From TrEMBL:
<keyword id="KW-0808">Transferase</keyword>
<keyword id="KW-0418">Kinase</keyword>
<dbReference type="Pfam" id="PF13328">
    <property type="entry name" value="HD_4"/>
</dbReference>
<protein>
    <submittedName>
        <fullName>GTP pyrophosphokinase, (P)ppGpp synthetase I</fullName>
    </submittedName>
</protein>
<dbReference type="GO" id="GO:0016301">
    <property type="term" value="F:kinase activity"/>
</dbReference>
<dbReference type="InterPro" id="IPR052194">
    <property type="entry name" value="MESH1"/>
</dbReference>
<dbReference type="GO" id="GO:0008893">
    <property type="term" value="F:guanosine-3',5'-bis(diphosphate) 3'-diphosphatase activity"/>
</dbReference>
Length: 173
């Protein structure tokens, strides 16, 4: 399943770039998958597939039915939980998103932690203002993820918190 998800994500994100305007976007989803597997230690093929697909509904022409058809309802549910409703105004969208994160399965929370871990690490390429925005958003999402978080992913949370603290201390220095 992860191999098919990697190919699917590469095709879906093929013309997109990261915020630096140079890095292919798909490198982010590949790194998130690597964080889930090698940094956090989760090897469930469904989680790895969802890590690779986590931005496809939000950022590409992919819809939830495409994910269900190719990867099953559980992967689709996890991907959908990481998808912001871009039809809503910003503040409503963020409020709805953190509500879903707070109520999500532990797998979704672990996947979001991997996403945050990568975004925080990748923020060194951004302007100080954009790094500050990344840190603020990460802090906001971590507050939602902590709700009902099982200890089995406590180590992942601590790694993200450490990375966030390092970024925040660089911003205040």
């Amino acid at each position: 399943m992860p191999f098919e998800a990697a190919a699917f994500a590469a095709r879906a994100h093929q013309h997109q770039k990261r915020k630096d305007g140079q890095t292919p976007y798909v490198s982010h989803v590949f790194r998130v998958c690597l964080v889930v597997r090698h940094t956090f230690g989760f090897d469930d093929p469904r989680m790895l597939a969802a890590a690779l697909l986590h931005d496809t509904i939000e950022d590409t022409a992919t819809d939830c039915d495409d994910i269900i058809e190719r990867f099953g309802p559980e992967v689709a549910r996890w991907v959908a939980a990481q998808t912001k409703d871009m039809r809503l105004p910003h503040d409503e969208r963020e409020a709805a998103y953190v509500k879903v994160l707070a109520e999500s399965d532990w797998q979704v929370k672990a996947l979001k932690l991997a996403d945050l871990y990568d975004n925080l690490g990748d923020s060194k390429h951004l302007s100080p203002g954009a790094r500050r925005s990344t840190a603020t958003k990460a802090r906001f999402y971590l507050d939602a993820i902590r709700i009902g978080l099982p200890e089995s992913i406590g180590a992942a949370l601590r790694l993200v918190e450490q990375r966030l603290s390092e970024l925040e201390s660089c911003l205040t220095s």
